[in-house]
Amino acid sequence: MGSSDIPPPSAPTWLVPASTVLLGSGIVCWLACYVLMTRRSLATHATPIPLVPLGINLAWEVVYALYVTEAPLELAGFAMWLAFDVPVLYATLKTAPRSFASAPLVARNAGKLLAVVFVFGLASNALFAWWWLAEPHRGHGLKWGKVWNGLEARDTTELAWWSAGVAQMAMSVGALAMLIQRGHSGGQSYAIWLCRFAGTQLGLPGTCFLLWWYWPEAHGFVWHPLSIIIVGTSMACDVAYPFVLAHVRKTERVLPDGTVVAGDVDVAVADRNGARHKKRN
């Protein structure tokens, strides 16, 4: 976000292009992550992402694609995100009955639960974005040079910082919790984690801390206590993730059909669950 911003004379001329490159690099990493998620999910018959973070993420992308973005590059990025999210959504719904076999209510209603989260996320993100952009100088610091749809002092960078930060925190916490709860790497891999981690760091803190370094008047929000909680929580979970992944991979087992199960799971029960799922399909 913020590719149309006009920085003060004290900032280098390359600041906005450089921040746009960082944001674009983050987009590419997340696109690769979506591809890897889909492949791993279908290969191991396990959902690649928790339902709540997926619904929140989809809602955030829709609101920004249809309402917040204005630059062609930003719109293209969100459009690609949504396009690449379709296979992830398909893989999630296809593998949900098997992944949630121990929770029949969730297994039977995964699509409905995801829809509820999506609608709630859509309304929340749309309302927050509308409120943020309705008046000038919303947020932290002086917003001169921050332009949105020809309106001065509307900072879409800080808007994205808060809304994307919450979505990312839900993703990071949810991914780690899912890995611990399952005790196996179904739907997960080191490559997925690396793309997700790199995409997050480049697109969110990387971009905004660069802007703060050369344009602190408008980007002091990166040091807000709430920012430290959001970014710190996300980073702590993401840093811990590969170590937990390595731990569960030591004990997990791979069934003949590619399904990955925790080491203490009864293989016969897992096979029966898989057979029932295949019959339904």
Please explain how this structure is put together.
The structure is a single chain. By secondary structure, the protein is mainly alpha-helical. It has one domain. 72% of the residues lie in helices and 3% in strands. The chain contains ten helices and four strands, in the order αααααββααααββα. The strands form two sheets. A two-stranded antiparallel sheet has the order 1-2. A two-stranded antiparallel ribbon has the order 3-4. Strand 3 and strand 4 form a beta hairpin. The protein is elongated, with a radius of gyration of 20 Å. The termini are far apart. The model has no long low-confidence stretch (mean pLDDT 92). It is found in: Membrane. It is a multi-pass membrane protein. Belongs to the paxB family. Keywords: Membrane, Transmembrane, Transmembrane helix. This is PaxB protein.
